[in-house]
């Protein structure tokens, strides 16, 4: 069982179900919706073709999550 945690934006308690699904979250569902999501996700294709080749072979994708700045609920 996860320990209850206050929302970094509004101060309300984050539901245990959300903390189990997203252990790294810092905001509640309502604040996440208001912010347009807690993270910005960047996806970059990985090239597996030889250096200098004009053929672009992509083997997979690399993802990177960057946390959006969290401002207090009243300060928007």
Automatic annotation (TrEMBL):
Sample GO molecular function, one term: zinc ion binding
Zinc finger (dksA C4-type): 7-31
SUPFAM superfamilies referenced in this protein's UniProt entry, alphabetically: Glucocorticoid receptor-like (DNA-binding domain) (SSF57716)
A matching Pfam family: zf-dskA_traR
Residues covered by the Zinc finger DksA/TraR C4-type domain: 7-31
Source organism, top-level taxon: Bacteria
Keywords, ordered alphabetically: Metal-binding, Zinc, Zinc-finger
The protein, known as: Zinc finger DksA/TraR C4-type domain-containing protein
